[in-house]
Amino acid sequence: MRAKSTSANPAIQAAAPEGAAATDVGRLSLWQLMKRRFLRNRLAMAGTVMLVILYLLALLADFFAPYHYLAKSQDYVLLPPQWPRFVDAEGKFHSRPFVYGIETVLDTYNLRYMHKADPTQIYPIGFFVRGAEYKLLGLIPADIHLFGVQEPGTCYILGTDRLGQDLLARTLHGGRVSLTIGLVGVALTIMLGSALGTASGYYGGVTDTLMQRGIEILASFPQIPLWAAFAAAVPPEWSSLKRYFALSVILSLVNWTGLARQVRSKVLAYREMDYTSAARAVGASDWRIILIHMLPNALSHIIVVATLSIPGMILAETSLSFLGLGIQPPMVSWGVLLQDATNVTVIVLNPWLLIPGLFVIVAVLAFNFVGDGLRDAADPFAI
Predict the structure, then answer these.
(1) How far apart are CA 294 and CA 287, in angstroms?
(2) Nearest-CA neighbor of 69 among 155, 158, 174?
(3) Spatial CB neighbours of 23, under 8 Å, sequence gap ≥ 6
């Protein structure tokens, strides 16, 4: 007797993944399906890793930087980056990274002092060394830094600015403002946009008309002049901390309109659903319907929109600080640091002053990757 073929039917093989997906859909909750789809997005995961690294660097800036961000060294103004080396000028390999000493010479052609590496002076880089005192997380006194060199050596990995301040320390500290202002601004944007958008879509009528016309008027203004006008209205005698929170509020007042309109469109659809009619029929109040049925259903969309709006706020803060209308010294942000790169001559002679701009690009790209991943995960049933 001829044995029957044991090869699987292609149709059955093709249907197997769909059956597995159907099993997952029936077994997992919506949030679990969203989490699974997000974790499978490689760009979103890469963006998440980049953001975790950036926030850790900003949070522990004093530990990762060898010098205080306000410390000045007049002997090393506009010093080029001192890149760590393993091989010296003679071709000898060193097991520990090191930096060369600095030799300052006068450039008679441009009439400016130039800093050059001196191969005769070698300073090994040590790890977990003692240096300037600081408060870890703003609470714990400490003086341990991740790396550094013994004096009279210097270790300016990213170089110095026009005041002789460590650009690495200032960039990491600037990330505290530039990265957190987006989170604070988005938190205020979510509160304004969600509340007003939900009220506009749920109540409709005169309330909806007035809110939509107000949103249209506010959205019709050019953003940069509007930001500049709000920022210029901030009293000049305010402290840096007050200006920081004022700038967060300003960015929120300008950016909540987009979220409000999108939440309104969602609520208009939810208002006609059967579960909303059933809740209204059993006597549920408007607040209960909004808080229990409307906002939870729109939450995934709100999270996506909020994540995608953070890069815009980071760029807005950078632009305002770059123009001198945002954060003011001695407080530092990426926009404040980029003020030193406004001159073409400075950019040509001191290109390392543009390094804070690279951090802005990385942060914006990371948030966009995460936002795109959340947007795809918000609809886990899409192909």
Answers:
(1) 10
(2) 174
(3) none
Rounded CA separation 318/315 (Å): 5
User: Where are the domains positioned within the chain?
Assistant: 49-56+170-377, 71-165
Report the distance separating Cα 49 and Cα 129, nearest Å.
27
> Which amino acid appears at position 40 of this protein?
R
Q: Report d(CA 55, CA 52) in Å as an integer.
A: 5
Beta bridge partners of 331: none
**Is the previous residue joined to 330 through a cis bond, with omega within 30 degrees of 0?**
yes
Nearest to 340 by CA among 191, 119, 165: 165
- Residue 300 corresponds to which tokens in the numbers above? 């995934």
**Which fold, 49-56+170-377?**
MetI-like fold (1.10.3720)
Amino acid letter at 335? G
Digits of tens for pLDDT over the chain (383 positions)? 444 444 444 444 444 444 444 455 557 676 778 788 888 889 999 999 999 999 999 999 999 999 999 898 888 888 899 999 999 888 889 889 999 998 888 777 777 778 888 888 999 999 999 988 888 887 889 989 999 999 888 999 999 988 889 999 999 998 988 888 878 878 888 888 888 888 888 888 888 888 888 888 877 777 777 777 777 777 777 777 777 777 778 777 777 888 888 888 888 888 878 888 888 888 888 888 888 877 777 777 787 777 777 887 788 777 777 777 777 777 888 888 888 777 777 778 888 988 988 998 999 899 889 888 887 887 666 55
The three-class DSSP label of residue 284 is: coil
* Residue written as token pair 């949030």: 31
Structure tokens at 182: 């987006």
Query: What kind and span of H or E run contains 86?
Result: strand 85-87
Q: 164 and 230 in contact (C-beta within 8 Å)?
A: no
What residues pair up with 141 in beta bridges, in sequence order? 135
Amino acid at 154: T
CA distance 164 to 75: 7
The span from the CA of 159 to the CA of 96, in Å, is 21
Q: Answer whether 197's CB lies under 8 Å from 263's CB.
A: yes
* Residues 165-178 as b or e (16 or more Cβ within 10 Å = b): bbbbbbbbbbbbbb
Between CA 69 and CA 78 the distance in angstroms is 15
